Amino acid sequence: MPLGSLGEFDYRPGYGSIHRVDQKRAVTLSGDAEGRLGKEVLKDVQERLKDFHLPTGYAIGYAGEKEEEEKAQAFLKKAFGFALLLIVLILVAQFNTLSVPLIIMFTVILSLIGVLGGLLICRMPFGIIMTGVGVISLAGVVVNNAIVLLDYTRQLQRQGMDVVAAAVQAGVTRLRPVLLTATTTILGLIPMATGVSLDIHNLDRTNLGTFFRTLINTRSETSQWWASMAIAVIFGLAFATLLTLVVVPTLYAILYRAAARFGLGGLHKAGEQA
């Protein structure tokens, strides 16, 4: 059946497709800016559109890299909060008090100071994704040293040792294991932080010299991607480890004596002497 028998048709300009975002009509503008960072380009675009007035019902939204970063940032915030909450719940169940877990979680704050300092020293930006992953991993690593110190301190107290003497003895006894654990972790992350990787796909086996030159790659895109995470873990772990050996026992002794003076339970139940 010919279409002309059903009605009249004419040709005029129209839309080939209608794009919608969240059920709202949208028009997408994109472009390439070679040799520039996405954040710099976005800042320039926002500056130019600052005084641009849109009709009623219209709005400008920024997608692409910025949208993905915002989604990743929201997810990492939730993951970091959930990780901290889970660690606190486990520590409360283990130590049967809230004071000790709070002292242990203080090491996470110390690690964050180290992360920011490391990024400043290395002149690296705070990457939302990889640096955020490094911070979350630090939350589960740096607490181990504080757990070891305080657990052994409480063991010595139960044997009748004074809280200050127990804290000092625990620090002396656990100094080597704590430093060795942190050192091995840091040394293992140095190749990732410096961008050194092994390229096993493009090896030149003609002679020994070219073999090693083609084996070791210092400019791979993968190593640059992971560098910010490695820097965050290295500096955060180093800073938190050194201060944990001093700050954590000091805080524990102060809070323990305060609990003994005011007759508070929980923390003071670790030993009888104050």
Automatic annotation (TrEMBL):
Keywords: Membrane, Transmembrane, Transmembrane helix
GO cellular component, one term: plasma membrane
Region forming the signal peptide: none
Keyword Transmembrane: yes
Gene Ontology MF terms: xenobiotic transmembrane transporter activity
Residue spans crossing the bilayer: 79-96, 102-121, 128-150, 225-255
Keyword Membrane: yes
InterPro entries in alphabetical order: AcrB_DN_DC_subdom, Acrflvin-R
Official protein name in the record: Acriflavin resistance protein
Source organism of the structure: marine sediment metagenome
